[in-house]
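#structure-requests
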Amino acid sequence: MAQTVQTTFGSASAGDPYVPTGGNGGYLAEHYDLNLDYRVATNRLNATATITARALMRLDRFSLDFAGLSMEKVTVNGARPSKVTHSARKLVITLATSIEAGAQFEVVVRYRGAPHPVRSAWGDVGWEELDDGVLVSGQPCGAPSWFPCNDHPSNKARYRIQVACESGYTVVSNGVLSNQSSRSGRTSWTFDVREPMATYLATVLIGRYRRRDLAAAPVAHSLYFPARLATRIGTDFARLTEMIAFFADRFGPYPFPSYSVVVTDDELEIPLEAHGLAVFGSNHVDGNHGSDRLIAHELAHQWYGNSLTVARWQDIWLQEGFACYAEWLWEEQRGGRTVDQLAALHRGKIQALPRDIVVGDPGPHDMFDDRVYKRGALALHAIRKSLGDEAFFPALRSYTASRRHGHVSTDDFVEFFAEHTGSRAIGGFVARWVQQRALPSL
């Protein structure tokens, strides 16, 4: 009888068909310490990433996602590996000494280059030069454009991000600003992310920004913006404090120490969410509350996406459907159309579209399709109407509390709500709205 030989090579993919080359097996990253020295004027980066990880199996070889930059030196537990190869998307490290299953280990990668976005099925994603600064948009696979990582949402980790650049710029990143110092015309900014964060939510924003602190409660929140947009910003984000308080009432306490909004001097196609942050383009501020819906959507992602993160991309409706539903809740709260009216309106719009995707597994090409957003929101509204507000919102708050900073899936959502509310109808609503092509009635 042939014996099965157990591999000691961590797989070069997380096995997610939505990002078939993304992620890596054999270990989990637990902490990233990123030290970035960046020249805005020339788009040059010199950096060191120190990654603390834990082996899930005996390892003789493992890989990191890393694209577009030049690796200079790699060590594992202070020693040079026996071999390191760098392809277009992967840094493959063959060890001189095996790492045993369960052992913690440290990888240090020194690298440099001119960072740029990586190509993907969703366009260019990752580190992007602005007219005068930087924006990082990592969803879903852009993190390797600026640091080596295990780039899949199933592996959340803590971070320390230190960025040095010319002193005329402001740097904004995830987490808490723990240190800022200047020397010889350059300023260093250090941020600590104490909650587990998915790689795609890590970001660096560099620009000539002013800062405006809005309020300390229910959580500290601030705006960063170009001086020329100060008046418009003051109008468009005047309701942000009220919005945070409203969502905290509906969803449970805001999940991070602070919230920041960055408005770039450049125009952006769409706003972006990041861990503890949201990013808007100058075209999203008009001084007339024209982006209230978008502001609500990106804020809601702090609960649904950033704290509660899908473990696989096929379940993205749990992030986008919730954020879309938050838009409807906010419009009703501000005296606009009711959630019932919005649900009927958007169901009618969906009715006119092809029914050729299953939003609970839309496929990579359609994972950001508007039907994923709207049918996800309609599923939540159907569940709410069935349960009543006195059961639905307490269940929602318990859900965000119990899964805080963790991972969620469709099955987990159904099981939690069914058990918490005692309703046997939850699975049926999700099946009809999320797992089938046919469009149910309201």
